[in-house]
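Let's do one together. I've listed all components of the complex below, 692 residues spread over two lines.
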Amino acid sequence: MKQNHQISEALRRAIGYLKNYDGPEVRIMEVCGTHTHEIFKQGVRQILSPEITLISGPGCPVCVTPAGYIDRAVALALDHGVTVCTFGDLMRVPGTEMSLSEARGRGGDVRVVYAPGDAEKLAAEHPDQPFAFLSVGFETTTPSSCLAVDHAIRDGLDNFMLLTANKTMPAAYEAMKDSTDLFLYPGHVHAITGLSDIKKMQAEGVSGVVAGFTAGELITALALAVKKYGEGEPFYINAYPRVVTEDGSPEAQKLVSQYMEPCDAWWRGIGMLPGSGMHLKKAYAQFDAAVRYALPEGVGKDNPGCHCGDVLQGRCRPEDCPLFGTVCTPVHPTGACMVSSEGACSAFYLYGGKK
Amino acid sequence: METLPEQITLAHGAGGKQTSALIHQIFERHFKNTLLTADDAAVLPRPEHQIAMSTDGFVVSPAFFPGGNIGELSICGTVNDLSCMGAKPLYLTCSFIIEEGLEVERLDQIAASMAETAEKVGAVLVAGDTKVVGKGQADQVFITTTGVGDVVSQNPLSGAKAAPGDAVLVTGDVGRHGCAVLLSRDEYGIDAQVESDCAPLWKPVSAALKAAPDLHVIRDATRGGVGTVLYEIAHQSHTGIRLKADAIPVDPSVAGVCGMLGLEPLYLACEGRMVMIVPQEEAQAVIDALAVLPDTQGICQIGEVTAEEPERVVMETEIGTQTYLPEPGTELLPRIC
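Okay, and this is what the predicted structure of the assembly comes out as:
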């Protein structure tokens, strides 16, 4: 019954290498919230030599979703009578006036679902009520939103929509490349997109390693990358080859390119990144809640004391923010990085303790 | 005698012939014992020692899940609460709130499970009540049980008694009930076989108390799981608790489901697992005594109580680092990517 947790000799060697590393100083940015979460859960930072610094980047989809998006979702629920379906993580993200959780308290119909397809099913069961799914996320979640639209067309629904804030990782790599020496690339994103974006970064002189999500996979990837970094040449390593292939998933890519196209997108804490978002093509505008309800664009207002933006760009550690652990906690989050379990502040608070 | 239809109707709660048919043909038939009252209250022999008394409501959805049903659960919950105080469960009462339309066959299975579970620990059902509410006013069936136990242990158990150096034991793999119920709601589209650990644990508790007369704490890790119980004990006793991640028993299917949904097995409910805190020198005796009993074969030590880091639960990870187990209270939302 008990699982065998004995760590392997190879992993032991990788830990030893990272502990005793005395090469050139190196900053490594993990761009993915799932990596951030696992790094804090496993205490990975404790085993690193002082020459190695890990920076939590902007890869938590909830954290980079601007307050203005929450405002539009709140407006759908309260002003337009739309049933808003969302992943649970978004419920407590502060908007300018209120969160979705508060909108529900004021009578808005806001429901937590586990997949976009669940929202499509609800719409099929209640044809007289409009439903909007809050489509946030990176390359890993965008295909399932497109699949829900595909099913809505199949089922002949005119009451199902997406409110899109989908984003793409390569834009984040570009925006962050000067804040780090190396990227720890998210394995599940590249399982979809393949290795071409990473090769492009290498051509621009930016190095990185594709990593899986267990402690062993993360540590092995870090050790390989740090070792290679000492050689001085730009490189990429695929340290997750059992999942990530050269071409990724053509089926998922095809699904996305059928229904969506790139657009400019606002990232909380970072600002506007041209071509970094995905929204529905004009031909599918009837499934776009922002179009159908003519929702005003706007970035909304964050709490001015909140340092989420600096945390997301690796300019500040969670514990350096004056609100961290006092005003801002997972129960009463001020900033998005404290709401999502993948946010750097939340992970640091939960596993590292408040200061 | 009225015969029972296939489904419960509001008339079964109205107190007339149909109510009496329901009581005779389902509850009396399964619960029969000399103490079960036909009057307004059960009159019972006085136990030898002090009595322990506990009550608990059960609303699990769905009412039937892999490894058990709400009836079995309603007995286990109260029996285990009494056991945690060193009390041998003696008498139980039950109160049913039934949704109109529940299949009689299902109610019969629930009552049969209750009787069978109570019998395993030598307790008897002595009184009950039945109400029927309209469709939609309850979810199939809700059950509240109340239990009285005889406090046979001379040793008063309490969370406040955890002391630095004590061993922290868990009587089997964690998180199975919570995982089984989540999966049986069929909201996730995950295909995994996980059975609830639901079990009445008076016998193992009694064996543990014999093996370690100086046992400090016994808690059943129900709602909130083992992690919540450990934080409660750490707060009550102002001690720290240090766990070894690689010693925590988790069924591979439960670990897989938790990985997919971003859940922590230590925070999923158990319905047949106890956390025991015992002086280190008595720990092996408890493990030896419980490892031979069917519901506690997986007993093992997962950590120790410390003077350092009071009121925190520290995890020694598989890679040799130390992190805090997140304190319960923040809703653990499934991850989205």
